[in-house]
Specification:
There is one protein chain. This protein is α+β, with helices and mostly antiparallel strands. The chain folds into two domains: 108 residues, Roll (Mac-2 Binding Protein); 232 residues, Beta Barrel (Thrombin, subunit H). Helices cover 15% and strands 28% of the residues. A hairpin with a 2-residue loop joins β13 and β14. The chain is globular, with a radius of gyration of 47 Å. It starts with 13 loop residues before the first strand and ends with a helix. The N terminus is likely disordered.
Length: 468
């Protein structure tokens, strides 16, 4: 019997019933049997995480969206800032007045940066009844008094020209003590009279002797005292030396007030229909018709009505006349300027004031007008603008005054005629008459242009035409 080469030689087959079978295993042949049981496959887990390449992609998308949003927000912010820049009066600093702007450091630095020079127009001022000289300091960003140490008349003349007065109207400089500790401006040692005054001063913390400069650019404010009767009466010669008669074709047309040897303040509506300077003649130092026979007529070289004057409402009803030749203040005491109000002087109700007008006398004289005078008291603007008075007709730049003694008729003041008040021994121009046709009626006081309100405008015109 052959042995199959494919059978384990150690195995023995038993033939039984025609089949070959392995004999039962012996104990020595029994070996442990390890059966590998396959557990049923668990359901696939649903992973909440995104594959790595998808996660990176989503992050890039989110970053791009955030970047776009930030960019849009920045563009929106830039648009808002640009809109504010172009709509704001002046983001960069100070507005020139024609829409252009300059840096704040360029304001009052002695260099003209605005096209029309607005940045150097109102940098020198006179304060209070003592005419204290104050100059705006660009470095300190406030108004400073000027130390009198090193100050001379040439600096005084230069300062007055900076304000707007002509060179030959200068009066004098003075001194006064001060207890201010806010610092001063002092004249540089190498002062150049031809250079701009603002470039000739420097900041100082102290001032020798604490003495500061006062400045009188014209001899103004001398006149009558305040003890006159309050009722309307004829004015005496020389009592109101700033009063002038403005005439057209030999006939009195309006009143006016002398504020310097070259300049007259009157009302804009006076010159609206006769705006040619050659139409006018100015008489000063007169109180009656005969005065024109013994006083010269001064010709007018320029008439300047306020550019925003409204004839219907009388808003900004103020004008200036420049004389061809300066008034001769030395020839007679009957002609003198009235003082323009300094900064810091307040004229409020119920302060007393005086008005003057050229009008017919009470006895019915039908000839040329005589100068008349009357005392008035200032009225609060709110009261004058109430429903029982002018019912809102008053605008900025107007004030009211009521006659102290009713029935005198002087409240029918000349158009352009002066309203003046005495303060600290000097007479100041408070207003110019703009309407008063019903002033004799109850609750209808006279209405005047507020000269303090127009002070910057007046000086700007004087400066612009000071060398005409």
């Amino acid at each position: 019997m052959t042995t199959s080469p494919y059978l384990d030689p150690g195995s023995r087959f038993i033939h039984k019933d025609g089949e070959w079978k392995l004999p039962p295993p012996s104990r020595s042949d029994v070996r442990p049997q390890y059966v590998h049981h396959l557990a049923p496959n668990p359901p696939p887990e649903i992973s909440l995480s995104v594959p790595k390449h998808k996660d990176v992609k989503q992050r890039c998308v989110k970053f791009a969206v955030a970047a776009v949003i930030c960019l849009l927000l920045l563009l929106l912010l830039a648009g808002i800032l640009l809109a504010y820049y172009f709509s704001s009066p002046c983001v960069r600093g100070m507005q020139c007045g024609d829409g252009s702007c300059v840096w704040e450091s360029q304001w009052c630095d002695g260099v003209r940066d605005c096209p029309a020079g607005q940045d150097e127009a109102n940098c020198v001022r006179l304060h209070g009844s003592s005419f204290l000289l104050q100059i705006y300091s660009t470095q300190a960003k406030n108004w400073r008094s000027v130390c009198s140490h090193g100050w001379a008349e040439q600096q005084g003349r230069a300062s007055c020209r900076t304000i707007g007065y002509s060179r030959d109207t200068y009066f004098k400089s003075g001194r006064q003590k001060t207890d201010s500790d806010e610092g001063f401006l002092m004249v540089k040692s190498d002062f150049n009279p031809e250079a701009f005054i603002l470039q000739q001063l420097e900041l100082r913390k102290t001032c020798p002797s604490n003495s500061v400069v006062t400045l009188r650019c014209t001899d103004c404010g001398s006149g009558v005292n305040s003890s006159r009767a309050s009722g309307g009466q004829l004015a005496s010669l020389g009592s109101w030396p700033w009063q002038v008669s403005l005439q057209v074709a030999g006939s009195h047309r309006c009143g006016g007030a002398v504020i310097s040897p070259y300049w007259i303040v009157t009302a804009a509506h006076c010159v609206a229909r006769a705006s040619s300077p050659s139409d006018w003649a100015v008489y000063s130092g007169i109180v009656d018709p005969l005065g024109t026979l013994f006083n010269p007529a001064y010709s007018v070289s320029r008439i300047i009505a306020h550019e925003n004057y409204k004839s219907l409402t009388r808003m900004n009803d103020i004008a200036l006349m420049r004389l061809t030749k300066a008034l001769d203040l030395t020839a007679s005491s009957n002609t003198r300027p009235v003082c323009l109000p300094s900064v810091g002087l307040n004229f409020t109700a119920p302060q007393k004031a005086w008005i003057t007008r050229f009008g017919r006398t009470a006895n019915g004289d039908s000839g040329s007008p005589h100068l008349m005078e009357a005392q008035v008291s200032l009225i609060d603007t709110a009261e004058c603008n109430s429903s029982i008075a002018y019912n809102g007709r008053l605008s900025q730049g107007m004030l009211c005054a009521r006659e102290m003694e009713a029935g005198t008729g002087v409240c029918h003041a000349d158009s352009g005629g002066p309203l003046v008040s005495l303060t600290d021994g000097l007479w100041w121009l408070v207003g110019d008459s703009i309407w008063g046709e019903h002033c004799a009626e109850q609750n209808k006081p006279g209405v005047y242009g507020n000269v303090t309100y127009f002070l910057d405008w007046i000086y700007a015109q004087m400066k612009k035409h000071q060398d005409d």
